[in-house]
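Can anyone check this?
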Amino acid sequence: MSGIYCVKGKSLHGSDLAPTPSSAKGCFTDSTSTRTLVGYSTSTQTNTPQVCLNSCQSRGYAYGGVEYAQCYCSNKMVVTSSTGQPTAIGDCSKPCSGDSTQSCGNAGRIMIYTYAPPLPSGWSALGCYTDAPSFRALASVSTASSSNIPNSCISNCSSQGYSFAGVEFGKECYCGQSIVVSTSPSSGQLAPSGDCSMACSGSPVQTCGNGSRIFIYTTSSTTTTTTTMATTASATPTTTTTSTSSPGGKVVVAQ
């Protein structure tokens, strides 16, 4: 993106406004003696949430926080009795130094955002599913890493020719060409998205499944193949293959 954009009499370079995937974590207390985000900080008269988050992301930080003209970056939040405590979103209502139509925290209040990198081209999220050691939802390849995040798992699976990738228990990555479904033990069954809330081993602000919960991704052009196994681990499995796809290539899992 190029060019100059005028905001309330100020100018911001287009590169500063380049979109960065992010989400607001909320408004938190902050203290000059104990900062909520410790890693990198700067003060600028062009500060906005996007400018700050872009600056943090370019330096390898996952959190970005704004307090008027100040921008703070870190990979974790410091929480004490006086800092890092969630507070009302209205407390973070001070206009940004770079754009008075946007809010940038307040005195003793920091508005924090998290950076989430986009998925590799052609991949999309299917959702959170149950998983079991004896009947893995994705049964072809598995690895464990202290730097696991969804994108690294997807890259690992894609490089080996697999169409499905799933992250589980923070550090685990699974690959497959189909989702294996079992009712007892439960595996490959759609679960509430909130069940997949464990932080990734490679990023504290990204989630990677949970215990017995795997978050699955797939290539958008893939027609889903679901293999249904026996209802008990000791029984002889029966296999049914179902292919389902929706208009536009969006994947739909057959249950």
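Reply from J.R.: I decoded it. Residues 47 and 254 are 47 Å apart (CA to CA).
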